[in-house]
Amino acid sequence: GTMLLLTSLWCFIASSLAFQASDWNGVWASLYPTKTCLDTAKAVVESGKNVTVIKITGTISVPAGKITWKGDFNDTSYQFVIGYGQVAQAGFVDPEWLPLIAVMESVDRIITFADPSRPSSSSNTWNSKAYYRWFEVCSASSEGHSP
Prior knowledge:
This protein has one helix spanning 2-14; strands at 26-31, 38-46, 50-55, 67-73, 80-89, 93-106, 109-114, 129-133. The chain is mostly beta strands.
């Protein structure tokens, strides 16, 4: 449908960009609907082949210290990661992994979205998110609270 067409168009436009595996390393922030400020996560490239992103501040559903998403580079441009994102009910109940694609749009921005080529049998879906290089840390008083 429309999402697949837009995804294909974005991948075509972005395919001319090239990055290094190390560009993915660092602390990233994304706004989640269950937080009053940005949630932060640390990305680590392992052996130049894959990325693991671990929550620093956490959310109501996936707490600090847990993997939020992970995957493998799909080519040597280091722009695309094919992987899985972790979702759960509040309190980290019934966690599961959903197929996703992560795209490095620039060295300061990563976008993740559900992978339409790998449908999930789950009733949950990975919500598209933009991650930005870290610039704000949530205070302890705002963690896990809805706005």
